[in-house]
Amino acid sequence: MAKVTIQKLHDMKENGEKISMITSYDYATACVVERSGIEIILVGDSLMMTVMGQDSTVPCTVDDMIHHIKAVVAGAPSPMIVGDMVFGSYNVSREQAIETANRMMKEGRCDVLKLEGGREVAHIIKAIVDSGTPVMGHIGLTPQTSSKMGGFKVQGKGEAAGEVLADALAVQEAGAFAVVLEGIPEALGKLITAKLRIPTIGIGAGRYTDGQVMVFHDMLGFFDKFVPKFVKQYMNLNEDITKALIQYKEEVKEGAFPEECHTFGGVTDEDLERLY
Q: When you count CB atoms within 10 A of the terminal residue's CB, does the N or C end of the chain come out lower?
């Protein structure tokens, strides 16, 4: 697959071709995604919950992100690699945001960056874009600031729909090349997608966005603390891996593993007799 570019995503929106996006946090899973042909990989701060066992994305640091981005970039040369800007890395000033963006791009070597927020961060998006780094927006339910929203709750219900639409338009005007719509009513996702020139990527935003994104561990049943309503589990890795580990343990206890085919030769009985 040829390298996925911003122009490719815009062409897909114009042609009505859906965009697929998935998270990845390490080399092994990135290699699998590369083989799948999925267009975009998000190295998300969700790694704090799925990989590090934290209860939110907030503790994630820029160093954490760069570490994981490097591994994913090494494993997946074709998809667009999106690096997540973490909580506290862009909300102090334009200068802080640009410095963070520069570091993530230079050290992590991702293709673009994503940051959360609407109208309140539009000036930050514009500053980063103007400095030379492409930005994907993220509005609706924003996990980094979910505490001020009352938790992980659907946003944009009723009259609040206008607020989310205003955020989408502001993010586009600021120069974002695409925007993630998270946790909003389907009808609102459809409206925003129709009104924006840039691609929309939905996660719990219904069927009518330009694309969809899911967390790798959620869709494969590899993270079982909770399963959001919008997640479809395509398999249950937790169950399959647990069965494999139990079988391995039993075979070790019984002496059934390793078998002869798993061993190495190269020493004869005569060689061993000399050692005695």
A: C
**Cα 220 from chain centroid?**
14
Q: Which of 39, 116, 182, 250 is the catalytic position?
A: 182
Mark whether 260 is an active-site residue: no
Which of 82, 131, 74 lies closest to 104, judged by CA? 82
| Residue 189 near residue 181, CB atoms below 8 Å | yes
Per-residue pLDDT at 150: 66
Does residue 79 have a cis peptide bond before it, meaning omega lies within 30 degrees of 0? no
Mean pLDDT by 10 residues, the chain (276 residues): 96 98 98 98 95 93 98 98 97 97 98 98 98 98 79 88 98 98 97 98 98 95 81 93 97 96 92 88
Q: What is the pLDDT of residue 143?
A: 87
**Rounded distance, CA 105 to CA 5, Å?**
16
Distance CA 11, CA 211 (A): 13
CB 138 within 8 A of CB 170: no
The identity of residue 29, as a single letter, is T
Classify strands 112-114 and 135-140 as parallel, antiparallel or unpaired: parallel
C-alpha distances out from residue 230 to 71, 220, 225, Å: 28, 14, 15
Q: What stretch of H or E contains 178? A: strand 178-182
Write down the pLDDT at residue 149.
67
Q: Residue 209's closest CA among 230, 227, 188?
A: 188
Residues 6+ apart with CB under 8 A from 211: 12, 18, 19, 20, 21, 39, 40, 199, 200, 201, 202
CA 235 to chain centre: 19
As given in the structure block, the two tokens for residue 10 are 């815009």
